[in-house]
Amino acid sequence: MGGMEKKIEVVYEDNEVLVLIKPAGMVTTDEGKKGAESVEKWLAENKPNGLKREGIVHRLDKGTSGLLVVAKTEEALEELQRQFKKREVEKRYWALVRGDMPKSGEIEMPVGRSSYAFARFSVNPQGKPAKTLFWVKDKYKKDGKIFSLAEILLKTGRTHQIRVHLSYLGWPIVGDKLYGDKISRLNRPFLHAQKVGFWQPKSRKWIELVSNLAFELEEELKGYEKI
């Protein structure tokens, strides 16, 4: 992984909360592993707050880049966790998938641990309810195949939800080796948390932040022809 991909950038900060951009290739929390390169470790060294998991409110997969919300006080942590639980937080992603997706759609299928493969999740009747909305922004062509660049709104936050839902419908995310893209040479899934909106825990003012695509994803797109 190059240096471009491993740099954390703080894009918003006040007394209660900070929002940063997580690079791909870095895990969000330590999971008790010492020495792992993680957002949690970076926060402990650069923005320590003494909270559990340094106040990280939600997670992004290791291979996903983008916006991550962190609480700085116990009160803010509780309030932001409540907002996530009540689905008051708006989380939008960009994903490039292999396939000709319809203009927009809603995917509502339960997601749970896969009974066949370790570390994988799947559409599973015994899983938890999961809802994903999408809008196709652009279509591309490469090597005779069609690709769709979609904006995705998560209504629930299940582990690997976007990757599982899209793969299940035959639209694997470019670079996602775990869920069906065996062709692309991109060494991470083309998935970026590009927008987050939440209520400021104290002032109750709505805060909305937007992030550009990660550098390596912009570079990847240059190899596709827009149609």
Core attributes:
227 residues, alpha+beta, Pseudouridine synthase, ten-stranded mixed β-sheet, two-stranded antiparallel ribbon, 4 helices
How would you characterize the overall build of this protein?
This protein is globular. It has one domain: Pseudouridine synthase. The protein has helices at residues 39-46, 74-85, 161-168, 215-221, and strands at 9-13, 17-22, 65-71, 90-98, 104-108, 111-113, 121-123, 131-142, 145-154, 191-199, 206-210, 225-226. The chain is 15% helix and 33% strand. It starts with 8 loop residues before the first strand and ends with a strand. Residues 1-5 have low confidence and may be disordered. By secondary structure, the protein is of the alpha+beta class. Strands 1, 2, 3, 4, 5, 8, 9, 10, 11 and 12 form a ten-stranded mixed β-sheet that branches. A two-stranded antiparallel sheet has the order 6-7.
Q: Please mark out the parts with pLDDT under 50 across 5 or more consecutive residues, or reply none.
A: 1-5
Rg (C-alpha, Å): 17 Å
- On the 0 to 100 scale, the average pLDDT is 92
Run of helices and strands: EEHEHEEEEEEHEEHE
The appropriate CATH architecture is 2-Layer Sandwich
CATH topology term: Pseudouridine synthase
**Count of separate structural domains:** 1
Total number of beta strands: 12
Q: How much helicity do the residues have?
A: 10-25%
Q: What does the largest sheet look like?
A: 10 strands, mixed
Provide the β-strand percentage band.
25-35%
In the CATH scheme, the class would be: Alpha Beta
- The name of the CATH superfamily reads Pseudouridine synthase
Please give the count of helices.
4
